[in-house]
GTPase Obg (Microbacterium faecale), 503 residues
Amino acid sequence: MVTFVDEVTLHLKAGKGGNGCVSVRREKFKPLGGPDGGNGGDGGDVIIVADPQTTTLLTYHHSPHRSSENGGFGMGDLRHGARGAPLELAVPVGTVVKDPTGQTLVDLDEPGMRFLAAAGGQGGLGNAALASQKRKAPGFALLGTPGWQGDVVLELKTVADVALVGFPSAGKSSLIAAVSAARPKIADYPFTTLHPNLGVVQAGDARFTVADVPGLIEGASEGRGLGLEFLRHVERCTALVHVLDCATLDPGRDPVSDLEVIRSELANYPVPDGQVPLLDRPQLVVLNKVDVPEAEELAAFVRADIEAMGYRVFEVSAVARRGLRELTFALAKVVEEHRALAPVEESRERITIRPRDAEREFAVVKEGGSQGTFFRIRGSKPERWVHQTDFKNDEAVGYLADRLEKLGIENELFRAGAEPGATVVIGDDDMVFDWDPALTSAAELTQAPRGMDPRLEGNRRRTTTERRDAYHARQDARTIERALEEERRLARRDEDEDTGAPA
């Protein structure tokens, strides 16, 4: 059964914006009350929050699909739709949010930091908000846009001051249990620790946290064992403690060779830009399990060689509680020195949003394929306007044409080489139409019933042949009608002669 998760993929879906309302005020003695359709509410956002009380991503491992509330629909009498409730997802401090390609979006390394992972859709405007001096009673409203939908990857990197690293069964879990209140699983077989354990150590007036990282083996930085999964938990640590097993029974192993292997794996692990390489950080060496007589002799034998490498060495026994006080006070001094030298950062903005393309509002790209050449329009505004348009309403379609023309899209199409009748696509095949530059922006000056736009009716002047055919058809119909009337008159006359009635 999974009890600890430090990486998970979330499938997010922000709330959809509510549709605007088309309504006209109806009151007694007020036949021209005017439009009173309300706006739709915005969809709820999905926000990721760094919470100190959360320690694992296990909840999202079991239920990775998360969605926020949709916005409410607008109603008549200027009643606006309710805004969708945002969804806040609590994650441990130290969680890194990435996109599916691995690019880092935000590092939630401080308590209370918030990240807008999925923005809710925009509510549509009602016809009351769309009314203007020339369009007094719009017969349409804007639809709500869908919220952002996609995947984000959460990766937990433990936030601790000191990391205990070493081979499996070197005694790291026993050591952290002896110096803190942490109670990790302890057993006499390799890879007992399957997830990092955190403990708080009090040494005099200093308090710091220690992380027990799962055992490393040769090739851990290349994916062998469990090292590659958990080496990232060492990235944020101030100091490293090499825990060396002096009582190991494995042939070919000794504290010096173990130290060289761990140093090599730490050197091969790439840290993010701006961080100090792992081997350049303060390091101490613990010769563990010296309560065993043979281990004590081996520790005394190799101590001089390790100190010659520039390390400060401590002989420790978690069982006999030997050397723990000296080790904890030495670590406290290292941590306090690092905290004193750390620059004081100004308070940062807690809410981080996805950057938007601020260079151009839209772009026209000429594309081609098996279906022929067409022109694709990309941009946040045109694509959002397409989602907001009710294509069953001619007036709404005309309003979209007005907005696109005022944005300057027609001029860009001309520059791109588009000709009347060319195929134009807005967004990812959201809307495909034949471009007609003769459809000028004049909807506000036309007089038509609500919901209709005379420019889209397709009226055209008939040709001479069509008028002549229509004239002959009317003349033929009249000739047939006169012939039928003459037959009816003769039939009535014959009937009168048979009955002797006067004609």
User: Anything to note?
Assistant: Residues 184-194, 219-228, 355-359 have pLDDT under 50 and may be disordered.
